[in-house]
What does this fold into?
Amino acid sequence: MKKILTIKPNSSLNNKTGNWRTHRPITDNAKCIGCSLCAKLCPEGCIEMINVNNKLKPLTDYDYCKGCALCAHECPVKAIEMKEDY
Amino acid sequence: MKNKKIIKKVKDHILEGSRAIALTINNIGPDVISAYPITPQTHIVEDLAQFKADGQADYEYVRAESEFAAASIVLGACAAGSRVYSATSSQGLLLMTEVLYNISGMRLPIVMTCANRAISAPINIWNDHSDAMAVRDSGWMQFFSENHQEAVYQHLLAYKVAEKMKLPALVNVDGFILTHSYEPVSIPSKSNIKKYLPDYHPASGDFLDTKNPVTMGGFFSPNEYFQTREDIYNDFNLSLQEIKKEYKKLKKVFNIKSSGNGLIEYTGAKKPKVILIAMGSVAGTIKETMKKYSDVGFIKITTFRPFPAEEISQAIKDCKNITIIEKAVSPGSGGPLFNEVKAAIFKNDKTNIKNYIAGIGGKDISQKIIEKIIQDSHKPNSSTKFIG
It folds into this structure.
């Protein structure tokens, strides 16, 4: 038996859900106005607003992003594009 | 007088099959037993409940409101690190099915007796193997007993291999034919069982323990789930050797006279023109009938899961007439044992036939994988492989 079947506490981050994705959100930082709406809406909480040249820009964690496209849909300036990813 | 002495030496008691199994289980000493009564398993669990009521047993006997509950109770107790036991039949086994998969998926070494009985409708309480075949692919090892004595020893073998391989085991005994009949049988003592089967102590981290908290049966994504199924498949293959090894030890400790190796048992002609193959109590009837024929051989399959395909294909390779007798049918196909034996015979064929297991648990089957499979199809070796 290779796979350990028991799961330790505080280990849910081991369940990387990125491979559920069929489309990958790509943010165009030039278009992005740094409103943080995507980070607030992300159901997985996997978008972090980071400082890029003194401006807030989103950083998507593709280990957990399931590709639901909510961020792309709600972005007020359409700076996020969903691209095929498999 | 002399004859009597010999008989006493060979077999200790004349017992009902159910009682023989119940006494053996009590001597094995599980920590927890839970079961729901169903004909023809009833006498086994009635006896076990009686032993407890009479103060002759140390186990906890937990009453359940259904077979689903009984299986879940032993699952929980085993997950908490106990050695457990249950027994059921027919509809009861089918009601347990969901839990059976959970048990094998969590790799809990639970041993259960199935008093084999037909499945409704129409309602029928008599013996056949439909119930065992319905859970064939649930990831449980399956043993089939010919008589009371074999049933007794198969329970010891089942616990030993189950706890070693972390695979659950179902010991099949033909309902009524074995469970309700009386035969001379010797029940291994507690001290002798200890020589063969040590106490069960799962490793730390493998069971539910407040000092070392873990979750069992939790979420696994496609990649990890796929690996668990490959592990079960590989460990079933490994258990073939383990059963042979442990049966050899069993034979030595309990002085068992048998031509079998734990997987199959061959009796009859040295160069047979016909070989019969069967499982369970019908083996006795076949052996008696065979006495009239000098050119008939018989393979009794004692382990159905893992399936001893290699042993069978070796045993029948020089015989052209193979006949399978079985108490179950797969509508639209044939007898389940018949199909398995046909597949085993095919091992001797030259056709290059391969089997790839893919896509289990949602794992993607990409064009890349199909391409690899196409390229590998020319390589000559027939086998089952996991790919993904």
Q: What stands out?
A: The first helix of chain B runs from residue 2 to 10.
